[in-house]
Design a protein that fits this description.
With 272 residues, the protein is of the alpha/beta class. It has one domain (3-255): Alpha-Beta Barrel (TIM Barrel). It has nine helices and 13 strands. The chain has helices at residues 3-11, 30-47, 73-87, 98-105, 121-129, 147-155, 182-187, 218-227, 257-270, and strands spanning 19-23, 51-54, 91-94, 110-113, 133-137, 162-166, 169-170, 176-177, 193-196, 202-203, 212-213, 232-238, 252-253. Strands 1-2-3-4-5-6-9-12 form an eight-stranded parallel barrel, surrounded by seven helices. A two-stranded antiparallel sheet has the order 7-8. A two-stranded antiparallel sheet has the order 10-11. Helix 2 packs parallel to helix 3 (73-87), helix 2 packs parallel to helix 9 and helix 8 (218-227) runs parallel beside helix 9 (257-270). It is globular, with a radius of gyration of 17 Å. The chain starts with a helix and ends with a helix.
Length: 272
């Protein structure tokens, strides 16, 4: 499956299939990014699942000043572009400010709006004007209905290539819960809906300044989301999550990706 066909299948999926947005939280270096992308492509090619490779070129929303934020914007974006070209797969990255949209669009196929920023009008409009696919994550503090207005900002700026991503809601100070009613409610807005499996299992606002997670529940959330009608799954993965430089506490170990996807395909096939 080439890059153009994969992007098309985000909006016109094959019956009984879902698409996957996956990769490390942040681009940590050339070799690690290539190793993860190579394995994900091998798995997804075998299972015939459309893959968009994910990697943040910069992590702007960190708890502490000394947290890892990236290896350099252009260096990380260059790695994503190289992977996309060499493997013929689309790539996705986050943007945080409106001026970043045009820069990142030169390197990637999908621009992702972080959950904290989904109401930022200038950011949404700038992303829309690049003509790239725009994936909008639902704020942890927001209802699914609020996403209609975020999507409208992109559409009314001349771009209807929109994905909507559920990623849980804040519960107290240090936990998130996932309301699966959000999946069908988001679908009613009229765009493909993605479940961010790993971020919805974060344990944020830790006293240590390092976000925790509940990776043992990844299978549960992913299976529930597919059963609820999600069109795609977003997950962050790493060969050694405990050594990942960002969000390792809620990542899926790379060798667990294939068994999870196989189980999701079985559930999706029943729903045809």
């Amino acid at each position: 499956m080439n890059k153009e066909k994969t992007i098309s299948q985000l909006f016109h999926p094959t019956p009984g299939k879902f698409f996957l947005l996956a990769g490390p939280c942040a681009v940590e270096g050339l070799k690690s990014a290539y190793d993860i992308a190579t394995e994900l492509k091998r798995i997804c090619s075998e299972l015939d699942i459309p893959l968009v490779f994910k990697g943040s070129y910069r992590k702007a929303n960190r708890s502490r000043l000394d947290s890892f934020t990236g290896i350099g914007d252009l260096k990380a974006l260059g790695i994503l572009k190289e992977i996309s070209k060499d493997m013929d797969i689309p790539v996705i990255t986050d943007i945080h400010e409106s001026h970043e949209a045009e820069m990142a669009a030169e390197f990637v196929d999908v621009l992702q709006i972080p959950a904290f920023l989904f109401r930022q009008t200038d950011l949404l409009v700038a992303a829309a004007k690049t003509g790239k696919v725009v994936n909008i994550k639902k704020g942890q503090f927001a209802s699914s209905d609020a996403m209609r207005f975020a999507a409208d900002k992109v559409k009314e700026s001349g771009n209807n290539k929109i994905l909507l991503t559920e990623r849980g809601n804040t519960f107290g100070y240090g936990d998130l819960i996932v309301d699966m009613r959000n999946i069908p409610r988001l679908k009613k807005i009229g765009y493909p809906v993605v479940m961010d499996v790993t971020h919805s299992l974060q344990q944020p606002n830790s006293a240590s300044g390092v976000t925790g997670g509940l990776p043992e529940l990844i299978d549960t959330i992913a299976r529930s989301a597919i059963a609820a009608g999600a069109d795609g799954v977003f997950l962050e993965t790493h060969p050694n999550p405990e050594k990942a430089k960002s969000d390792g506490a809620n990542m899926l170990k790379l060798d667990r990706v294939k068994p999870l996807l196989e189980s999701l395909l079985k559930i999706k096939s029943v729903l045809q």
